[in-house]
Design brief:
By secondary structure, this protein is mainly alpha-helical. It contains 18 helices and no strands. Helix 6 runs antiparallel to helix 7, helix 11 crosses helix 18 and helix 12 runs antiparallel to helix 15.
Length: 445
């Protein structure tokens, strides 16, 4: 039975603050994503259906495409200044972008400038959310040991999923009951400001402080502190660079993170066109449809997080990876054979159950990255996987479906599912090697 009684008061407070902050970040981030069917009509020019699909893909990808550059910035802050500073900064950035979007004039008022401004805000939101969720997961990983580490880190992802669900609930209110969407952004901005202030109560993680203390001890031992802060920073960076990330581990980490962007896009974005064309769904119906799916996604994630306390996370990921591979082979036939919106909903539900999410395996992945390269490496891989996969899925599937019908899905889903399974298998080998190295000397003695 999962119990948080083993956690200290400081650990519980830190986990609570991080989960609340992640919830707010993803509420603000996903509010536009799920209102895109409505807001794209307000901020982008009206065009033919094909061009509209490309513009929608562009608006969606703008949140993710420049994230790798943000990862380098936040990675440097997280690895050199601290995990705490990063999660506070990212929350403030989200608040500012929400304030701008809440008051932004529409295309009818200022023309194409509205499209560029909203795209810029989406980029800032993408930057901040990237540093936010990885910063929170790294913080909890370094704060709490296994086995409680697995569910507590996973519940950061649960908070993000909950933020998405609440964003969809607000989107439903906007489209069905005439709720003003600008108020939702104002509320999100206000709460984000409060959240960033509350996070000032966080303390730096012991593992981060310990590693930086080792760096300072090495500099002191060499009497190599330098005459100024710039010289000291250069020498500190050189010592950090001596820690190496295994190349194969890097690629395994990357391919596992590529799974969820594909799963998310397929479930919440790809089927929208099918529902509109084949079942005459309006924008309002699509948002309500996705809201119900988000509730299922949240339930699946909670169940998996709780199970990770008793079942090893990599076993859970491998099971979901195999399920995804089977679904990827059957999905085109299933879509072509569907004759009701209920059947489409069931297909989307199966894709969520077999989704290629990294939770609850994130803390296992992170511990195989050197501590003082962890933030930079983890956020860069996270950002790169989103940027690459959302571009591939959102743009390529427009053309692959036109050329190969729904069988074009194989060209994306099968390689990603196989890569995910390979990545999980690599970390399983690392875990077994670590276990052997840890206990073999004791057995020999």
């Amino acid at each position: 039975m999962l119990s948080f009684k083993s956690l200290s008061r400081d650990q519980k407070e830190a986990v609570g603050l991080l989960q609340i902050g992640t919830f707010l970040e993803y509420f603000d981030l996903m509010l536009y994503v799920h209102l895109a069917v409505l807001l794209n009509e307000l901020f982008f020019p009206k065009t033919d259906p094909h061009t509209a699909a490309i513009l929608a893909a562009f608006a969606f990808c703008s949140t993710f495409v420049l994230r790798p550059f943000g990862a380098l910035l936040f990675g440097y802050i997280g690895d050199h200044i601290g995990r705490k500073s990063t999660v506070i900064l990212t929350t403030m950035m989200m608040a500012i972008s929400c304030i701008i979007m809440a008051s932004l004039p529409t295309y009818a008022q200022i023309g194409i400038a509205s499209a560029w401004l909203v795209t810029g805000c989406r980029i800032v939101q993408g930057f901040s959310s990237m540093g936010e969720i990885m910063g929170a997961e790294i913080y909890v990983t370094e704060l709490i040991p296994p086995p409680m580490q697995y569910p507590t880190v996973s519940f950061v992802a649960v908070s993000a999923a909950l933020g998405t669900t609440v964003a969809l609930a607000i989107a439903t209110l906007v489209t069905h009951f005439g709720f003003n969407w600008r108020i939702a952004f104002w509320v999100g901005a206000a709460i984000a400001v409060i959240g960033s202030v509350a996070r000032t109560r966080l303390r730096e993680t012991p593992e981060f402080l310990k590693e930086h203390e080792k760096i300072q001890q090495k500099l002191n031992a060499k009497n190599d502190l330098g005459n100024n802060k710039f010289s000291k920073a250069i020498k500190t960076q050189k010592l950090i660079n001596t820690e190496k990330l295994n190349r194969k581990t890097f690629w395994a980490y990357l391919v596992t993170w590529c799974g969820w962007p594909m799963s998310f896009y397929l479930v919440f974005m790809y089927f929208n066109k099918i529902l509109k064309q084949d079942y005459f769904y309006t924008s309002e119906k699509i948002i309500l449809h996705n809201f119900l799916l988000s509730i299922i996604s949240l339930i699946v994630l909670v169940v998996i997080s709780v199970l990770s306390y008793k079942i090893h996370p990599l076993k859970i990921l491998k099971t979901r990876g195999k399920m995804s591979l089977v679904l990827s082979l059957l999905l085109p036939v299933a879509i072509l054979g569907s004759n009701s919106n209920i059947q489409i909903f069931l297909l989307q539900t199966l894709l969520l159950i077999g989704g290629l999410a990294t939770s609850p395996g994130v803390p296992i992945f992170l511990k195989h990255i050197p501590t003082l390269k962890r933030f930079t490496s983890a956020t860069f891989v996270y950002a790169l996987s989103r940027a690459v996969m959302y571009i591939i899925t959102s743009f390529s599937l427009v053309y692959l479906t036109e050329i190969f019908s729904y069988y074009g899905l194989w060209l994306v889903m099968v390689p990603v599912s196989v890569g995910f399974l390979w990545g999980v298998n690599h970390f399983e080998k690392l875990e077994k090697t670590e276990y052997t190295d840890k206990f073999t000397p004791a057995l020999a003695a």
